[in-house]
Amino acid sequence: xxxxxxxxxxxxxEKLVRPVVGSGxxxxxxxxxxxxxxxxxxxxxxDTEGRVHGIGDWQEPFSVQSISKIYTLALVLAQDGEEIxxxxxxxxxxxxxxxxxxxxxxxxxxxxxxxxxxxxVVTDRLxxxxxxxxxxxxxxxxxxxxxxxxxxxxxxxxxxxxHGDRNAALAHFMASYGNLDNPxxxxxxxxxxQCAMEMSCRDLALATGFLARHGVRADGSRLLPVRAAKQINxxxxxxxxxxxxxxxxxxxxxxxxxxxxxxxxxVVPGKCTVCVWSPGIDxxxxxxxxxxxxxxxTTLTGWSVF
Length: 306
Ligand code: DON
Description:
Layout: H1 3-17, H2 31-34, E1 42-47, E2 52-56, E3 62-63, H3 68-80, H4 101-105, H5 116-130, H6 133-145, E4 151-152, H7 154-162, H8 165-176, H9 184-195, E5 197-199, H10 201-207, H11 209-212, H12 226-239, H13 245-251, E6 256-258, E7 263-268, E8 272-277, H14 288-301
Antiparallel strand pairs: 1-2, 1-8, 3-5, 4-5, 6-7, 7-8
The structure holds 6-diazenyl-5-OXO-L-norleucine (DON).
């Protein structure tokens, strides 16, 4: 697609979703996120060559939250191959992202790497492999987005820590099954920092390019085997929107990953990555206008995987 075509599609998407921008609520369980203005909307598309087009607030940094779970998983798979799948599953949970219930009857093995419990295990492994899980994530995101000022918000991370009883419960519970190797507090600190990364739609669309390029990084080097990139995309499709993954696949038809900051990243393998941000989220934690925008995008372009 030509540049002007991307711009035209983004214009049409924005017109279609305007009426729902502002719907939903911010994530009040993380007080530092509660104050974000729900009338914001931005969207960016990056092609596999790294050309980016955007609309609205596409260059405005926001809290990436659970979108970070894609990259920690990719870094662990890159360094450790299939090992991680002994400690975390890859089936949709059908439960909220911070639910505790399945963990007990499934022996401390989280259903997938995108619910909080699964991501804590992935962060624990990344910490063991690198000695600095958050630092290696941040360096990767800086390199892929080409913005070496990217970092996390200490205010958001502290707010998550202060209201982090549920994540702490998940981590302690898994530790009781021997499914964490590092001290719980250390794993939580890295996890809260990773979720508090601040990036724009532009940054995230670029940083996710390796999944559209079947495992190849922005500089042309290979991060992952083709097969591992396929696997991450598949887990995003089935688990990236939590207990709304079915509805997301039905409406959007792409691998996607949402965060309670209101961002969603989606991948059109072989073609492009799309990131949308609008802070109003629904009960499952997915941006209301974000899902609507991706629905409109795949409908207008015909670029779903189906
Ligand atoms: O741990 C948490 O609850 C948040 N830092 C991340 C949750 C999240 O983004 C779920 N996404 N929709």
